[in-house]
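User: Predict the full complex structure for these chains.
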Amino acid sequence: MELNEAKNKYIQTWGSLATSWGINKTMAQVHALLLVSTKPLSAEDIMETLKISRGNVNMNVRALIDWGIVSKEFVVGERKEFFVADKDIWELFKQITKERKKREIEPVIKVLDELQKVDDSTEEGEQFKKVLGDLSFVTTKVNSMLENAIKADEHWLLSNFTKIMKK
Amino acid sequence: MELNEAKNKYIQTWGSLATSWGINKTMAQVHALLLVSTKPLSAEDIMETLKISRGNVNMNVRALIDWGIVSKEFVVGERKEFFVADKDIWELFKQITKERKKREIEPVIKVLDELQKVDDSTEEGEQFKKVLGDLSFVTTKVNSMLENAIKADEHWLLSNFTKIMKK
DNA sequence: TTTAACTTTCAATAATTACTGAAAATTAAA
DNA sequence: TTTAATTTTCAGTAATTATTGAAAGTTAAA
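Assistant: Here is the predicted structure of the four-chain assembly.
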């Protein structure tokens, strides 16, 4: 397989993984593109490669910056902005996990705990409170599993792996 | 807050958590409803409570059965089918994790590993292969973290928690 | 069998989500 | 300053995803 063909397939694959986890496809593809680029890319570069509009590039690049996984970079002699993705994939995983915990898990735990305060001692009410308690417990458990994962420093493992592969 | 109000809020909250993780909202809501029900529910029951069509109920109940988190139950003297959700929330988490691993993570690892075979030794090509290797490594790592999570038997922890809460 | 209760399917449609492109806003060079 | 390059915004539209409802299919009671 030829390099550009492989790159395309990689960008497609990453986009559909994102979609199945509720992340915008284009956002993932822009990120995927920046990840494998050897140099910073401008909005134009991204527009051309992914064949998407300027507005779309702008929105998704902002979102990626907001997620903390892409940053602006200035290129000497150039007026326009360029973008780069942090190439450290373990860092990437940690960052995504951190954001999703904050955005999507923690608010739910809060609501579940709030709802448990309902005052009802019928069988139905007790059953309801038991399920809420269990859901909240498991959600909290998952949340702390993720917390541990992002705290553990696996950098050495990854850099080690890459070194071995280079041989 | 009154019980039905709390139930509604819970069903809504669970539905939107699902949406943000790429799972159909109604599917999550049907499941949420079955979870807090003290008795098996028929298609009609679900239609009425969630105000959705028969077709929609049918499709989503099938999907839940396919995911292994809901099952049919026969009620004596009734012709039609009834459904129940397994009330064990840790089991639920394990089952969902297992399915998503199989459906959405493992196929991606396979593609990434396949693409790494591309034969190209330009700087661009090497960079590409390095990123693919790292992505594959981290994805595999996450996959095995999840594997460990579902293997660990945390049942005692959950049942213990519930007991404490009942006091 | 026949009949009726019940379930499934899926084309049509609705709802949601994502994208475009051009106008407005911003930035910095002239 | 002016001017031109660049970025941002967002109303309109396109694409995708989810839902309905009625017809076809299935099952079991009569």
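The beta strands of chain A are 41-42, 70-73, 82-85.
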